[in-house]
Every structure is written in structure tokens, then in C-alpha cells.
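ok trying this again, last paste got cut off
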Amino acid sequence: MPNGDLDKWLHHHFVTQGEAPKRRLTMFQRLNIALDVAEALDYLHHHGQVPIVHCDLKPSNVLLDDDMVAHVGDFGLARFVHKAVSNSTDECSTSVGIKGSIGYIPPEYGVDSRVSIEGDVYSYGVLLLEMFTGKRPTDSLFQGGQTLQSYVAACYPDRIMEIVDPTLLPLDNRYLNELDSFCNEIDTEKLKECMASIFRVGLQCSQESSRARMHIRTAIREFGMIKDVLLND
């Protein structure tokens, strides 16, 4: 893809002294990417004859085209799944061997041989938290049982601005583009409200219990509402 993968945009923005800051993702670009990925998962899970579980959703597998539209790639671990109807919900799972990337694998994969669409939702939740904190789930900060989720939860909702990716807050106005300038004009309380909503979606998608996770279509609706709040006075 012309603009590479999401991992490079999130984590390879460091520059040497005296060098102009490299391009980085704006608030609205991140929101659009989050929505693109959610819609891709919804398509895989619910719009084919057989549900498909990606099994390895992470930033390096989110590819960006010329228009910065996100596409989910690398289906090397993807699995077709059968659908089983239970009393409480529709569940999709398969018993093929479990693989994935550390930090993005849902906890139930460690005790059960089945993959599920809820597992992809977990990975998506971790991805969201990473996109808006700028921290990988494998960051050295997370030790002694702490995770990216617990890191965010500890600051949610009152201290969330303390953990927002600092690259969302430009340090030098000379390098602002139009989207950045617009983001700077957003009312602080409105921005905090939207960040709280974003982190809430990320936390609910990455719940330890698969049954407690937000449905991907609900996440899509939530991000649509978040964009509306930011764009409207």
C-alpha cells in the first residue's frame, strides 16, 4: 500500500534534533482508520456466507492507501468458522490451532482451542487503545500484571488526557496542517468527552470475557457519533 502500515505511522515518528517533524496521524485520520477497520471486521464476520476470523489483527496488518483509507491485510492466519446458536447469543467459532501476536491475543485463546469473532473484537479493542495512547500492548511500562487495558482503565474517565498520545498535541505550529489546526480549535471539554468515548469503546471491546465485549456494529455506531460530536458545534 502507498502509505505503508499503521504501525509505522504510530511508532516511527521520532526525528533528530533540528529536523522537521515527520508526518503523523491526526485525530480525524485515527478516527477514520478506526472506523475503516471496524467496518472491515463487520464485513468479515457478518456479510459472507461463512464468517471469517482474521486471528492476527494488529497495526502492522492495517494498510493505508493513497487516501489514508485503512485496509485489513495479511490473512495468513484467517479461519473460516461455523455458526452455533446458543440460548444467549449467536456464536461463531472453530477449533483450528491458535496463533496470533503477543498483546493482541484474547485471553480465552490460552485455555480454549477455538477462535471466534469475539477474539477479533478483543484485538480491535487493543488496537484502538494503542492508536490513541501511542503505546504498544507490549510496552516495557506494562509489568507485574499491568496491561494496556489496565493502564487506560486506571485513568478512565477523569484523567484520560494524561494518557492520550502526545503526537495528537502538536508542539510547533509551523508544522500544522489544516486538519491539525482544526483539531486545535476543538473545545477542550469536547475533546475530552470524545477521548473518553474512544477509550470506553476500546475497553469494552477488549474485555477479558468474550461475552462482555462490545459488538463490532455497536463500535461502528459509536465512532460515527464521536465524529459527529467533533465536527458539529
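PB: full thing came through this time. The chain is about 40% helix and 10% strand.
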